[in-house]
What we know:
The protein is α+β, with helices and mostly antiparallel strands. The protein contains 12 helices and 16 strands.
Amino acid sequence: xxxxxxxxxxxxxxxxxxxxxxxxxxxxxxxxxxxxxxxxxxxxxxxxxxxxxxxxxxxxxxxxxxxxxxxxxxxxxxxxxxxxxxxxxxxxxxxxxxxxxxxxxxxxxxxxxxxxxxxxxxxxxxxxxxxxxxxxxxxxxxxxxxxxxxxxxxxxxxxxxxxxxxxxxxxxxxxxxxxxxxxxxxxxxxxxxxxxxxxxxxxxxxxxxxxxxxxxxxxxxxxxxxxxxxxxxxxxxxxxxxxxxxxxxxxxxxxxxxxxxxxxxxxxxxxxxxxxxxxxxxxxxxxxxxxxxxxxxxxxxxxxxxxxxxxxxxxxxxxxxxxxxxxxxxxxxxxxxxxxxxxxxxxxxxxxxxxxxxxxxxxxxxxxxxxxxxxxxxxxxxxxxxxxxxxxxxxxxxxxxxxxxxxxxxxxxxxxxxxxxxxxxxxxx
Length: 429
């Protein structure tokens, strides 16, 4: 359907119409198949050389995403995969997008059939080209050239009708103003409350064995160390340590050395543990939205939603199926009401797709972890944001109450311990 936009396509699966695609222009067809909103950020590519013709669209750098990017290569009217050419596109984007982000692109190549070999892979999707280094440079230059041109405004009626713009019909309707019930006598400043910061025994956490071994060399040692954390706020600490923020890190002094903690990764671990517990224990709390948000998933995303709908409700999402791949978001998990609903749900669906945890043989814990990790990454504090000392201490306490405080769920290191001996060796000369 992406190769022949001038041909009408329809797809029915289990007696349900998945696609009904009328003939249209390429940009309109992309919007029908993928995301209509995404077409607003597409930049045309059109380069013709003696050995290769390149056409299609690439996404503006600001439309890149960490997961779920739409990346398509076609050659002579057929879909292909080519990791070397994909690297050419990525190099063109490299100065303009954050590390780890992936751009959207729909690139169509035309060349003489004698210049390609389609028999190098059983599925015929991996193709060998003659003089690939030269084509690499042509593709990279074509994408860079596209960035230098501003996309023209498209007033094609097919883009507007059914898009995001309301159509004026000449008739106006008036809805009654909502009635808000409130207590006029309520004064949030009338009564004072007090909060005592819990005293946390950092030294007990880092008590070392007689052998002076690194606490975090093995999972068993990690478990032993985290079990020494005071389980209740009433536990009195022998000494309170100041937490210092240095860039993206939290640094605190302990008897055994300096603990250096990545602030965002620590928050991801804490949130992941919480969201996983909500799903497995079915204890999600939903915060109702004053104005429900209507979101429309792509057909691929919509096939996943029914498999994870129950898990989403356990986290705290309240979704209602409106049909046509559209859902009403009536509630969000408590504490994340200000996170964009569509972006968050699409990131969670992309995580599930990449983890391959849907279908008849899916395992609930694996699917729960995929959903929890995506939501934790979306809601965790960014590296650029500083937090108060009280919040930093709470964050550290939450981290060390985790069963795995040293690594994030996807294996990235959260903390390192710089021992006193290591510090002494730095100044031994």
